[in-house]
Amino acid sequence: MFPHRADEDRSAELDQTEGKGRTVSKKITDTLLPTTMIGSYPKPRWYTRYNLAGADLLEWWKLEENWHAWWDATTACIKDQELAGLDIVTDGQMHFDDYGGGIGSFVWYWYERLDGFTKAKLPNPLARAIEESADGDLSQAAWMHNWGGTAVTGPVGRGIPGRLGEMHQAARQLTDKPLKVSVGAGPPNLTYHVDFNHPDSQYTEARRLAEDLVPIFNQDLKDLVAHGAEFIQIEDLGAWMLALDGKNDWVLDVLNGWIDGVEAKIAWHCCLGAGYGNTFRAVEDALPRVLERWMAVNVDQFALDFALRDMADVKALEMVPKDREVQVGVIDIRTLYIESDDVIVDRIHKALEYIEPERVYLSTDCGLKALPRFCAYEKLKALSRAAARVRSEINTGAA
């Protein structure tokens, strides 16, 4: 239904991406090995009592207390990143509520706003399937139930707007640094927690639901660009379906439909799950088996988790074509342990054995929201220090 990435070569020397309806600047910063974080950041403690709970952001902002709270929290998040030394910052996703899994708002922000989805927290269908299997991983089922599930019991529609453009426009005023916008979950990912066996379900399969969501989510990205966004990172775990069933290529088509015609630099983060630090264990070692197929998605950059497995899968970077970049995860967000500079430098060195530094951004494995703010901040400072050391090594070697 949606076009795969074209097979034409794209010159690595060009600073322009030319594709279907897209001619956009690729370069975000001149810094070698630029540092960033995936997207979310811990809420300031005083801000934890502020939750949108499904409200339209612009309606919620009408109360001056709410507006100033969001503005001040976003300001603090961006300032932490600047002080930590990051080269590219995000707004920290202060619109995420404190739902199950630490980062449950990743999906609930959309379930609560899209027409057709139940707003109540239902049993998670993935967890139920695990519980019903003979050898199910019950600890996996537990944290998935903590996230909860939903069902689609009416026609799917936009419902309450996500207001991503308005948030970006506001956050853009708070920093002179390049600002990346993290957007997720997306259409494939949102199907994971939908109960297709619900008695009132309007859908019987994930593919049809994901395809029906694409026009809504594609328009959200175009609205972001209209509000000034230049660097968008889509967040979606749907492509792990390829590791579970090789016939799920439709996921790649849906991802291409989501970003079709969006005039911005686009990265894609397909993480390994982060429910209170827990991964989707069934796909922890799947990256080398699926990464080559992911190249069919028409993005400029892939953001990949490596740190949690101590860079075990980093050789897979050899599969990434010369015209693509990678955000290499060198900070493990699934632990409170703050890595030493030496550990992070070693992780960077391992990545650079398989990909040129000119194509590498350095990042966290996933969002930092579930961590204490102290740990998140110190991890980012260590990332910046380690990146500076490796840049110095490279510059000294080239002298």
Name the CATH class.
Answer: Alpha Beta
The description of the largest β-sheet is:
6 strands, parallel
Spatial sequence of strands, sheet with the most strands = 5-6-7-8-9-10
Low-confidence stretches: 1-25
Radius of gyration: 20 Å
Strand content: 5-15%
Distance between the termini: 51 Å
- State the helicity in percent bands: 25-40%
* Number of β-strand runs: 10
Q: Return the average pLDDT rounded to an integer.
A: 92
The helix-strand sequence is EEHHHEHHEHEHHEHHEHEEHEH
Which structural class fits the helix and strand makeup?
Answer: alpha/beta
Please, could you describe this protein's structure?
The protein starts with 15 loop residues before the first strand and ends with a helix. The longest helix has 26 residues. The N terminus is likely disordered. The chain has a single domain, classed as TIM Barrel (Alpha-Beta Barrel), CATH 3.20.20.210. The radius of gyration is 20 Å and the shape is globular. The protein contains 13 helices and 10 strands. Strand 1 and strand 2 form a beta hairpin. A 6-stranded parallel sheet has the order 5-6-7-8-9-10. A two-stranded antiparallel sheet has the order 1-2. It is 36% helix and 12% strand. By secondary structure, it is α/β, with parallel strands linked by helices.
Secondary structure layout:
Elements: E1 16-19, E2 22-25, H1 57-60, H2 64-84, H3 105-111, E3 115-117, H4 125-132, H5 138-147, E4 152-157, H6 164-172, E5 180-184, H7 187-190, H8 206-226, E6 231-235, H9 241-244, H10 250-259, E7 265-269, H11 287-294, E8 301-304, E9 325-331, H12 341-352, E10 360-364, H13 373-398
Parallel strand pairs: 5-6, 6-7, 7-8, 8-9, 9-10
Antiparallel strand pairs: 1-2, 3-4
Helix pairs in contact: 2-13, 4-5, 6-8, 8-10, 12-13
